[in-house]
Amino acid sequence: MVNYRNLGRSGLKVTEITYGNWLTHGSQVENEQATACVRAALDAGITTFDTADVYANTKAESVLGEALKGERRQSLEILTKVYWPTGPKGANDSGLSRKHILESIDGSLERLQTDYVDLYQAHRYDHVTPLEETIQAFADVVRQGKALYIGVSEWTADQIRAGQELATQLGFRLISSQPQYSMLWRVIEEEVVPTSAELGLSQIVWSPVAQGVLTGKYLPGQPAPEGSRGTDDKGGAQMISRFLSQEETLRRVQDLRPIADELGLSMAQLAVAWVLQNPNVASAIIGASRPEQVAENVKASGVTIPAELLARIDSVLGDSVVTDPRETEKSSPRP
Known about the structure:
The protein is an alpha/beta fold.
């Protein structure tokens, strides 16, 4: 079964493996299969589920809500996010304005078929709306009982610090950060992780398998396997293109196989276990298009990778690893 970790400096516990439905529910995967994946997650001991209103333009939340219907609500941790445009994409249909946040939480709760979410997250930093307005709106969402905790996603260390200061003044605290993090993408390590540890936030990381690259199924000099994310025309291929265009990176990933074998892990399990070695990481988000993928990935929970093998991983990947903290800033659109 899956282990639990506290989320930030809060009493909320989440499973080390979070089931996420970005790029799957409502788009790549039919609803029946999506429900089967959610059931597999529950059977494996996962109780933490991550989604966002923008995924499949609100459909992903609806699919997840339907799949979880009938489960004991108190036994689940449901996470969703707000920022990106949904619906007709009008002038106020995106960002972190008070209007958009307060309207969006109501839409998310209706689609998820719940009275509250455990964690409501700012999906990006809003460079247009005053931060004071955003944090005040989140404070009101918490006071209304519509979200129990607040987190952020892809915020820089400075943005997290400013947000936490305002939140503290209003009587609540940010408890989590949701960044991209993997063996190949380590941009949070220099600034975001130490700042989060200082301020009482922990990471719920997305793409721990680097959109599938760290499974080893993408071979240098060969086309992406049929049916893989690398051939998906609904957004998956675009997201993974950065890694697939780097032949040397794909070659180095293949050199990780002996390390995975030594630990008795698959390549995907090694990748998920690797991010969980970081003490500031509370949970790794996995996605799945088939139930068996969930059953395999949860085996990464509780794994300890010895220090000498962590050093070997660093040596194998070398300069294929992206570490520049400025990459985080690039993820939030500017006017």
